[in-house]
Amino acid sequence: MTSQPKSYLTREEYLEQERKAEYKSEYHAGEVFALAGARRNHNLIVSTMNRLLGNQLADRECNVYVSDLRVRIPGADAYVYPDVVVCCGEEQFEDEQQDVLLNPVVIVEVLSDSTEAYDRGRKFQIYQQIESLREYILVSQNSHRIEQFVRQGEKDWVYTDHHDSEDKVILASVGCELGLDEVYAKVK
Fold it and tell me: pLDDT band at 127, cuts 50/70/90?
């Protein structure tokens, strides 16, 4: 028995297919990976982060997007769907469709059992290639814990672990503050 050969798509083929698809898929160097649906806690955290950040950025030149806006990482030949993205200043999109963002400042990923290793490893490596990215936030849905990576220079990232209910995550790049007690207010 032989294995099925992999079928690779060009970026153009992926975007054409993805823009018509009922379900989201990510693209990595020609391969396409379907995304699974999210559970209650994941959705609560994403919607809370969107609300908290959106309220703080309401009268600034920043926008908050949740999981339906693709981000392109040219250096990694990838298109991904972060859980939450903050973009400030003039937004740059790949084309006139304005569904592929090129210059996020903050990316938030809510960790699940199936994605945690990828979000911490390969996906973070990919995200580091985005020049505009200043902060990468990992939010656990299984415990009250937010991990923050802040870019220092071109290649260095400073790590901070927030796990006390009174902790505040300061997103200096966008001038926002997230209290753990607020983020996890309705999470069981």
Answer: very high
